[in-house]
Design goal:
Layout lengths: L1 H17 L1 E9 L4 E9 L13 E6 L2 H17 L7 E5 L5 H4 L12 H20 L2 E10 L1 H11 L9 E5 L7 H8 L7 E10 L2 H14 L7 E12 L3 H13 L8 H6 L8 H16 L7 H14 L3 H13 L5 H12 L3 H11 L10 H15 L2
Parallel strand pairs: 3-4, 3-5, 5-6, 6-7, 7-8
Antiparallel strand pairs: 1-2, 2-4
Helix pairs in contact: 1-2, 2-8, 5-6, 11-12, 12-13, 13-14, 14-15
Pfam families: Esterase
InterPro entries: AB_hydrolase_fold, Esterase-like, Mycobacterial_A85_antigen, TPR-like_helical_dom_sf
Keywords: Signal
Length: 386
């Protein structure tokens, strides 16, 4: 626990230095009062200027205490490119939490001030953010305890194009019928839906029981559009659960966005029956489809696919990998080097020799050096007498 707390403090300290947090008041005509938002913008982003980039949005209920850990972990994961740079918005509720999250015990749906708060988020907060920030289509909502129950109302809203695609539900204090609502939606969703559920061994007993029961049901859902993960953490209390669980939520939500790992390489790529290059292009097409982000293919991922091709000794995909590398990194050595390797392995030494010579003029990257391509060219010249 001490180590977790120390890590969290370190992350939050880093955020204060490197990420910009704004505090904005919204005059709400729906609520008839002023509400405060906390807004974290990504590193290097000037909140008052349009930098031409678009960012996913993370909306955090219970922003008074939940914003800082969420914003810190988002900043940390974005720094390591395990998720896209994102805008995080916390909605403060400390004085109005009970009324904001109010639901009717008879039907488990928002009522009175609870319904007004829903309208406030949809009709005032989101339009304000859309107007003032460049937002991608991908939006996540995070809640804890009672607010973890409440985030589900945004999932239940009937929309042709859902406003939110991802829900992080931490130690949820569910309304009586909420679990049945969720289990009804999950198998039927026709758009991509990410759902993360967490509890702990020291959570409130009723919350733990209900959360684990819902998780058991959702794990059986057979729907390619429903991406579900759940965890029961060993040790944390109900109130410390978010500090332990939110990082896992991000890992599960943005798994396809992350660089190819050793596990992905070993368990997936090396076992492919088809081309590993097709796997690579599909991975990045999925990133664009899910998150609206056209991400440059990482050098790490090129190296993983190249290693898989070498291991298989099926060289045909290497030609296509070379073309993709040239497109992604036109000024660098990686594309020409892969083409030279392709020619060398298919028994075209003269073409390989010329390709190595051509590669020399490009910038080094990914551990491929000018010295290496010259050595390979010289070796071919010595072997074949060019």
């Amino acid at each position: 626990m001490k180590n977790i707390c120390f890590l969290l403090v370190a992350i939050l300290a880093t955020v204060q230095i490197t990420a910009q947090t704004l505090y904005k008041n919204i005059e709400s005509s729906i609520l008839g009062e002023t509400r405060e938002l906390k807004i974290q913008v990504p590193r290097g982003h000037d909140a008052y200027e349009n930098d031409g980039k678009k960012y996913p949005l993370v909306v955090v209920l219970d922003g008074d205490y939940l914003f800082e850990p969420v914003a810190g972990i988002v900043d940390y994961y974005s720094f390591w490119d395990d998720m896209p740079n994102s805008i995080v918005v916390g909605i403060n509720q400390s004085k109005t939490r009970d009324t904001d999250l109010l639901y009717d015990e008879r039907n488990s749906l928002p009522m009175d001030e609870g319904q007004q708060f829903f309208s406030f988020v949809m009709e005032e907060v989101l339009p304000y953010l859309e107007k003032n920030f460049n937002l991608e289509k991908f939006k996540m909502m995070v809640g804890h305890g009672k607010s973890a129950n409440y985030v589900n109302y945004f999932m239940l809203k009937a929309e042709k194009t859902p406003t939110f695609q991802s829900f992080v539900v931490l130690g949820p204090d569910f309304a009586p019928d909420m679990m049945s609502f969720i289990t009804d939606v999950a198998p039927k969703t026709e758009t991509k839906l990410f759902y993360y559920l967490a509890t702990s061994t020291n959570d409130v007993p009723e919350i733990k029981t209900n959360t684990e029961a819902l998780a058991a049901t959702l794990k059986t859902v057979d729907n390619k559009n429903f991406f579900f993960n759940a965890d029961t953490f060993e040790g944390p209390s109900h109130y410390s659960l978010p500090a332990h669980s939110f990082a896992k939520a991000l890992e599960n939500t943005f798994f396809v966005y992350q660089p190819i790992s050793k596990k992905e390489y070993t368990d997936v790529i090396l076992k492919l029956s088809g081309s590993p290059v097709e796997y690579l292009t599909e991975k990045y097409a999925t990133i664009e489809d899910l998150f609206g982000i056209k991400k440059q293919i990482l050098i790490n991922d090129f190296r993983a696919i190249y290693a898989a091709i070498r291991k298989s000794e099926k060289w045909e995909p290497l030609e296509e990998l070379s073309k993709i590398a040239k497109k992604e990194y036109p000024d660098h050595i990686i594309g020409p080097y892969y083409m030279a390797r392709y020619y060398e392995e298919i028994g075209e030494p003269k073409k390989a020799y010329k390709a190595y010579q051509n590669a020399y003029i490009f910038e080094e990257i990914g551990g491929i050096t000018k010295d290496e391509v010259l050595e390979k060219a010289d070796q071919l010249k010595a072997d074949f007498g060019f």
